[in-house]
Amino acid sequence: MIQKTTLSFFKVFFLLSIMFFAKGNLHAQTIVPAQLDGLDKLCAGSSFNEFFATFSYVNFPEGTTFTIELLDSSNNPIATTLLQTIDVSATQKTIKFAVPTNLVGSETYGLRVKSSGTTTSTRFRNSAGNTSFPAYFKVYESTFSINNKDTNATICAGGSLTLSVDSGTNSPVNYPNLKYIWYKDNVVIAGQSGKTLTVNAAGDYYATIDYGSCTDANFSSNHIAVGNSSSSSAVTISSSLGNPFCASGTGTILTATSGNKYQWKKDGAIITGATNRTYSTNESGSYSVEVDFGGCSATGAINLQSNGFDASIDVQDGYKLNEGETLSVNVTTDATSPTFEWYLNNNLISGETGSSYTVSVKGNYKVKISQASGCIANKEFSFRINGDSGPASVIPNIIKLSGMNPYWNIPDEYKNAATKVIIISSNGDKVLDVVNYQGDWPQNNIDFKNVNPVYYYVIQSDTGEKKGSITVIK
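RE: above sequence
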């Protein structure tokens, strides 16, 4: 009932003001703002930025336009964005407007109308009857996280811990002008408005973004329960892939209890550079981490086990293969139902799927072992086979696609960045033009057309140029 009486008073005052100005000066240009019913503050953001202001005007020439201006505490005008002008009557308009997206928030903004002829009104009154009220543009409207979304942390007696807003693509940290409100046990911590907070007492902590009277408690951070302890049992280590874990890809991520500083060790030895809260590994072993809680430290440990597989190979990298010699290469593994793929110069060797392979030509070899059941994992071994000079340096002129080496494998002395290899078809088409050739041609199917195709090669090196033909047979 009191609210209705107050509103009626302002409406009467509004009408009497119009009559007074019209009677007092028939030619004075006058703008009289109406009360902003239902609007006590301007809380704008990316999700909402539309406001309405109604006013009456007299003695303005046809074509006069009007805008809404924000006024700061010193009565300096700030331009708003005109969204729409609505004609209520011949002497009354409603303007829909938006506040600037770079507005510096304040509790003491005002609003007025300005005509294109520079006439201005007095300030609008909000729904509470005040001519000054809060106005903010909220550049960030979402929940956010602190300390990597932790829910618990530990400090030692007399120590401290730093809580900080997490960075990232969608983080309020990307807006450096923002201020924050920090809470302990749901009570505002006075004097703390930065993106970090140093705590030295147990309690429940969280933060919100400070938008003054427009602050939305729904857009807050995670809560962190900080407790006191000086026992080593306060430090725990978790494995993102469990323990035992499947050793594949980038491995498992070990995460320690939140603290100030960290130092990881493996089998008692310091891991150089491992000073973050997390550590990624693909290796089994006894891992520990010393955590500085500020004023004291504690250590936690985990005996990390892998449920992948082990494998070894019995070939010497760089083995020198004599002319006419062959070498048996064997893989030993405890993988469950393993599969094998052998490669020469990065090309899959067709039909070779066993744990051993007989090498008869020089080149770069690789074997891939896969375990497809249980823990899906892979291992690879690479090795190079060299050869003698002399007869082994002869450039081959026949490629047998069904043989053990279905590629044109030239001597190693021509496999370098200073040598160019060109291959031309019998039709004169250039099918290869590379430097540092690695013995991997042909890579595409050869069209025989009932005859063995003949190609011609040119090898250009520092020692001169060599030319010849290559016959491809099935």
